[in-house]
Amino acid sequence: MNSTVFIGGSRHVSRLSEKVKERLNNVINSGHRVVVGDANGADKAVQKYLSEAHYDKVTVFCSGDKPRNNLGHWHIHHITPPKGTKGFQFYAAKDREMAREADFGLMIWDSKSAGTVLNVLRLVRAGKIAVLINVSDKTTFNIKSTAQWEDFLSCVSPKLRADLRERATPDEWMPAEASSQHNLFESCEPESAVHKRGELTVPSDDELAAAINAALAAGDPAAVIDALGSIARAHGMSQVAKHTGLARESLYRSLSAGGNPEFATVLKVMAAVGLRLEANKQHTDNAA
């Protein structure tokens, strides 16, 4: 069964990276329905890409009567914000509705936008997978639970945290442990269904392990660290930090793009996520 994907992002993102395009191609090839906003920036860039691909399984959500952008002339879903709502909250009304309607989300982030990160929170609160691509440093966060959300939140700037709290509604910001609906934070679908739904955007551990092996074979240390960081974030950086005895913030930095972790750190993280490094003799053909 095809899923509904909420695709959104920051207004300051006007060009899509190759990583984002690859994710969009996965959605297109799988025939999933897309719900997207009408804003300038990432919304408009995604609309342009889908329109040029002649993809018609798209619904544009807008707050109010008229969308700011609808490049593919798709169906429009008008959202009526609460009376008297202005500014950020006026446009957030459509985001909340898209998060409710979607099965999972893909967010394109400029590393600063609070609105984009709030959409991740809305999805996670509803027990849905959210993939956050930071186009500034080319990192990807696969956030599947409130624990992983808290991990992510602990590493953002105090300014962004304050902005998030100011913009979120009390229900959105409410800590998981204080919620009377904590069961909504975990998906009610069978594990196999969750994996099938998420595999379009969240590589499995086996796929990431294969990526590490390929990077090792190619002698590409940056690719090794990128894949290892993705596995660590998928497992939850708090759990990895607990098993390795290393600081969570330090792990985030060293396993992100441009990170340069010590070899001992690499070994500890691999052990924490159930991987091990083996050396094999390289066979080469001798010239006659």
TrEMBL record:
Single GO MF descriptor: DNA binding
Domain of life of the organism encoding this protein: Bacteria
Record's protein name: Addiction module antidote protein
Species of provenance: Halomonas sp. RT37
Taxon lineage: Bacteria, Pseudomonadati, Pseudomonadota, Gammaproteobacteria, Oceanospirillales
